[in-house]
């Protein structure tokens, strides 16, 4: 099925799609983004409430985090988000080779992010701060751990994007865009986590 | 096929009871409907027993001292015995839910291995995830004169078995998610496939209850329990609704055999 036919087919059976295409990718992927955003918002609200109950202890532990790691992580993830956007752009234009290169660049960004995150954990554990050390660090490991889990799921999404790009017969712009949407969500969640854990005073 | 002849006859419209009897004799999907209504019965029993009779959901504090745990067992003695007695009799009907979910995967264009894995996984999961909790807490309720330290162990074991075995549900959700996303027969909506992924990820959070006894990460905490309860509640509501839609959509003459593409 070519893209137009598949899109028509998708439009006719999707319950969430109300006519015109205003967003990239599957409507279903946007439903996931919404559900994830709501779940994480609930976690963030709990964190903020406990933070407000005991701000001094939180600030003391927060000072132990290295802002440099956080900023560097954010820059890497934002760059990878840009590269997956360029991947989608080039795949739309039909420059598959360039799109593949940007897809691999995104994977590299994700790997670098994960390696850095694990290194940062090892530094914090080396200083004696673990999940059960204090309240702030339990949130720190919880948020960064949950986020890293999403990064790992994101690698599956990027794998699907790569697989779609490399096979001319099954190349499907909608699925490529859905994979990219997931990666953007991973990036977006990190930006909030970064703000809450490293920056919020 | 005799079923196809029966479809032609219209159901009587006079009373609900007559309709029910007619459907019971003639509806070609009656096995599926019986399975679906069994799920409704199960979740009602489960809700009444766990939230109402035994008051084990929402779970009592994880931070109770052994003395308080003995009191908790004494206060809830009758509830635990009666409620979990009902579960020992009726709990196994949860298999209808597992069976219907596995059936949904058999109707998909994916390998039957998905359905089989799910079936085996959830058949085993009912033992640590539900029955072990009931057995352990009933033992505590039946022997109130034991050493408080032993009672505390039973209490911890009961609730940790209930909350700590989420890995099974994590893998189960992932299997269902992958099956829905790969399926070309459109048995279930794709967004629900993604919702399964989200549900699987929230199951990971529960693991923190093995480390913390108080605060949001304990088994009665906001993050490890309440947020998950909301996600799981919506998830359960969705899958019951979508299984109903699946049965309604199914045409017994076309889709009668599983796996027909």
For the structure shown, list the relevant keywords.
heterodimer; A: 201 residues; mainly alpha; 7 helices; 81% helix; B: 261 residues; globular; disordered N terminus
Summed up, what is this model?
The complex is a heterodimer of chains A (about 200) and B (about 260). Chain A is mainly α and about 200 residues long. Chain A is built from seven helices and no strands.
Describe the structure.
- The complex is a heterodimer of chains A (201) and B (261).
- In chain A, helix 2 packs parallel to helix 7 (173-199), helix 5 (96-126) runs antiparallel to helix 6 and helix 6 packs antiparallel against helix 7.
- Chain A has 7 helices and no strands.
- The longest helix of chain A has 32 residues, at 135-166.
- By secondary structure, chain A is mainly alpha-helical.
- Chain A has helices at 3-13, 27-53, 55-62, 67-93, 96-126, 135-166, 173-199.
- Chain B is globular and about 65 Å long.
- Chain B is an all-alpha fold and 261 residues long.
- Chain B has helices at residues 2-8, 16-26, 30-53, 66-75, 77-90, 95-106, 112-142, 148-164, 166-182, 190-205, 222-249.
- Chains A and B meet through helix 2 and helix 6 of A and helix 10 and helix 11 of B.
Strand content of chain B: under 5%
What characteristic shape of chain B results from the CA principal axes? globular
Strand/helix succession of chain A: HHHHHHH
Question: Could you report the average pLDDT of chain B, rounded to the nearest whole number?
Answer: 87
Q: Tell me the structural class of chain A.
A: mainly alpha
Assembly annotation: heterodimer
The largest pleated sheet of chain B is described as: none
What's the gyration radius of chain B in Å?
21 Å
Classify the helix fraction of chain A into a percent range: over 70%
Distance between the termini of chain B: 20 Å
Low-confidence stretches of chain A: none
Number of continuous helical runs of chain A: 7
**What low-confidence regions of chain B span 5 or more consecutive residues with pLDDT below 50?**
1-8
Question: How many strand elements of chain B?
Answer: 0
DSSP strand count of chain A: 0
Largest inter-chain interface?
A-B, 26 and 24 residues
Q: What structural category characterises the helix and strand content of chain B?
A: mainly alpha
* Rg over CA atoms of chain A: 19 Å
User: What does the average pLDDT of chain A come to?
Assistant: 88
Measured between the Cα atoms of the first and last residue of chain A, the distance is: 53 Å
